[in-house]
Amino acid sequence: MIFNKETAEKTAELLLQINAIKLNPSNPFKWASGWNSPIYCDNRLTLSFPAIRNYIRDEFSKQIEEIYGKPDVIAGVATGAIGIGILVAEELGLPFVYVRPEPKKHGRQNQVEGFLQKGQNVVVVEDLISTGNSSLLAVEALKEAGANVKGMLAIFSYGFDVAEENFKNANVNLNTLSNYEHLLELAVEKQYITEEEQKTLQEWRKSPSTWGV
């Protein structure tokens, strides 16, 4: 869900400007999942651009307070959202924890790293939503650690139906700064892509697992 249309458009433009999002319908990327994709998104690049990372930090912070009020803790999903999560926690003056994909194999075998008390209200920060599976595993780990997870905010979502269904089934509220729909509109308007390429990109999202096979 997009909370602010103006933020969605500006975030999309910033991600395109620094090639955090690359659109290449004629020469698709290959994802780790094996899917062929005309888009590649690496939001960790935003950390290398102070003005952009600060913009994302500020928008996250504003939306968290407007949607949830001030939580007790900010949690980042490892590894992509650790950096921006720390910036958001610092801006809000809150503690920060991060969630590993799985518990450590040694030492204290933590999956949630940092100080977290049972019953604390937590908002989760994520960099990218595809199917939502890894993000929701982080939410589950926080709940198992005793946290009251209020919801999640992410920089960008591909807007897959399966992700929407996964978050709905898990009863987790998700908001994103921008998404695929706003990205494509902006990309055509700013001439990053043609209208014909936009149609190709729209077709991909309907069935990403079989597109280009």
TrEMBL record:
InterPro entries named in the record: OPRT, Or_phspho_trans_dom, PRTase-like, PRTase_dom
Pfam families the record matches: Pribosyltran (PF00156)
Keyword S-adenosyl-L-methionine attached: no
Known catalytic reactions: orotidine 5'-phosphate + diphosphate = orotate + 5-phospho-alpha-D-ribose 1-diphosphate
UniProt keywords, alphabetically: Glycosyltransferase, Magnesium, Pyrimidine biosynthesis, Transferase
Signal peptide: none
Cofactor(s) needed by this chain: Mg(2+)
Protein task: Catalyzes the transfer of a ribosyl phosphate group from 5-phosphoribose 1-diphosphate to orotate, leading to the formation of orotidine monophosphate (OMP).
Family classification: Belongs to the purine/pyrimidine phosphoribosyltransferase family. PyrE subfamily.
Name listed for the protein in its UniProt record: Orotate phosphoribosyltransferase
